[in-house]
Backbone:
């Protein structure tokens, strides 16, 4: 494989800004509280920070097999795209497109939701919520295989993914209402992402975009913010234990697999929506919080 392009570690560089902005937001709630906004709670924030720190450690381990697979695929790609100032923007656009489908898939396939549910497990919505990341993030790599096979260097893909992650930090806030209309039309904003984190029926499984909201508009998964969101899950987890937050949906899946009567139902427990149950459904599929 050609030499790895020299791209900055944007997530590591952004950590001081993450911390500073989180502190600023926390102080803003103390100085100008809003009874309609959830603000911060010590236990919830501590859990989010612990999940974020743990994800950095676990991701370092998951990265090894993923890089090996990507490297093998990149080696057989028919072309190898250069990493330059003029190729990075289309790579970022392609990554954002793949992220949309990765994110959407993690909401409608239960075994993938078991990973992503961690990010939605807080009943509060603030900048610390952005740091509440899963410890089993190895479920996302397959969605980016087309980019590697198209000749995008794995390091360039990692850079684009990092840029998306850094962008999405600031949209986890209630302190910003709406941006000017042209920006709301194109970009994923705090207003759009509040809808994504809400647990009301009309907001479930909506607004999957990373940097751009145009994919949701194109693929009919966009819903504007109208009523105030209620954050969390449709069945909330009453625990701040990071280990339980990281694994509770896997435990629920294991229980359902053990109780299933047929192998067909076992497969469906893994591949159908989070709300699926055998027999007449008691609630629509996809009613787990988004």
Residues:
């Amino acid at each position: 494989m050609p030499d790895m392009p020299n791209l900055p570690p944007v997530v590591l560089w952004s950590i001081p800004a993450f911390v500073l902005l989180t502190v600023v937001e926390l102080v803003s709630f103390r100085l100008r509280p809003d009874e309609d906004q959830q603000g911060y709670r010590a236990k919830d924030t501590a859990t989010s920070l612990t999940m974020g720190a743990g994800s950095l450690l676990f991701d370092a381990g998951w990265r090894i097999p993923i890089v090996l697979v990507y490297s093998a695929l990149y080696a057989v790609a028919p072309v190898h795209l250069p990493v330059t100032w003029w190729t990075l923007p289309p790579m970022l656009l392609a990554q954002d497109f793949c992220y949309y489908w990765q994110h959407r898939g993690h909401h409608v396939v239960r075994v993938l939701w078991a990973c992503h549910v961690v990010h939605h497990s807080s009943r509060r919505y603030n900048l610390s919520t952005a740091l509440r990341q899963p410890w089993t993030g190895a479920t996302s790599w397959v969605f980016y295989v087309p980019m590697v096979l198209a000749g995008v260097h794995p390091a360039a893909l990692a850079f684009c993914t990092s840029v998306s992650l850094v962008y999405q930090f600031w949209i986890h806030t209630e302190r910003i209402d709406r941006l000017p209309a042209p920006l709301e039309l194109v970009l994923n904003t705090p207003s759009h992402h509040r809808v994504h984190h809400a647990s009301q029926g009309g907001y479930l499984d909506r607004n999957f975009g990373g940097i751009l909201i145009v994919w949701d508009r194109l693929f009919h998964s966009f819903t504007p913010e109208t009523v105030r969101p209620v954050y969390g899950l449709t069945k909330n987890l009453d625990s701040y234990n990071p280990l339980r937050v990281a694994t509770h949906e896997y435990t629920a899946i294991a229980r359902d697999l053990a109780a299933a009567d047929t192998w067909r139902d076992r497969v469906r427990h893994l591949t159908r929506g989070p709300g699926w149950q055998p027999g007449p459904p008691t609630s629509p599929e996809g009613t787990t919080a988004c």
User: Anything to note?
Assistant: The two ends are 39 Å apart (CA to CA).
